[in-house]
Design brief:
The chain has about 210 residues and is mainly β. The protein has 3 helices and 8 strands. About 15% of the residues have low confidence.
């Protein structure tokens, strides 16, 4: 990650993550706590042991994401930061797409690559990540990259957490291997907003040209 990208990635961890979940607008998904320095591993050690981490790849932006277990096959758009320092989210459109946060590592690089998606897109109905909560340990996620390679990840855990207690360090904190984070909204609705976030944690298990 370049110094500029690293600073922006750190900024996102200190700012509110935004994930639009319903209606016609986006809403705050959390107010993350301060990042800690150093290297850490995903918290669920028993789940980690079931994965077989592969060698890291170089940097190449992702262009498509496939999750066979929940029939997701989506182009990936690039997301940055809003003017207020919060993470940009995919637009609310009829043809909903997930988005890769471009200040995070690319899928296959060392570090946590972050992908955001909607669970609901207002008048257009279900979002691309509507079934994210159904993923289970061992499921496969494939990220097709701009250089033609594919990074395959194995799900190690799926968490539903209150937005008020978003686990910023677990999502954004430094790790010593290639990992993936998929984030959407979930849980019960409070008015027009979802109360929780659904976060999928996965580790790189194989690559192909």
């Amino acid at each position: 990650m370049t110094p500029l990208s690293r600073r922006a990635f750190g900024t996102a961890a200190l700012a509110s993550v935004l994930v639009g979940c319903g209606g016609g607008t986006s809403e705050p998904a959390s107010a993350p706590a301060r990042r800690t320095r150093g290297t850490r591993q995903t918290g669920d050690r028993s789940a980690d042991a079931s994965a077989n981490p592969a060698r890291a790849l170089g940097r190449s932006a992702p262009v498509r994401l496939r999750i066979p277990a929940i029939d997701v096959d989506t182009p990936l758009i690039r997301l940055g930061l809003e003017q207020d320092g919060t993470v940009e989210v995919p637009p609310i459109t009829a043809h909903d797409r997930a988005g890769w946060y471009r200040h995070s590592p690319t899928p296959g690089e060392v570090g946590p690559s972050v992908v955001l998606g909607h669970v609901h897109v207002g008048e257009f109905g279900d979002g691309v990540f509507r079934d994210l909560v159904r993923l289970r340990q061992g499921d496969t996620i494939e990220a097709r990259r701009q250089d033609g390679s594919t990074a395959r990840f194995t799900v190690v855990s799926v968490r539903t957490v209150a937005k008020a207690h978003f686990p910023a360090d677990d999502v954004y904190g430094d790790v010593d291997r290639p990992e993936l984070r998929l984030i959407t909204c979930g849980g019960p609705k409070e008015g027009q907003e979802y109360r929780d976030n659904v976060i999928v944690f996965a580790v790189l298990s194989s690559t192909s040209p």
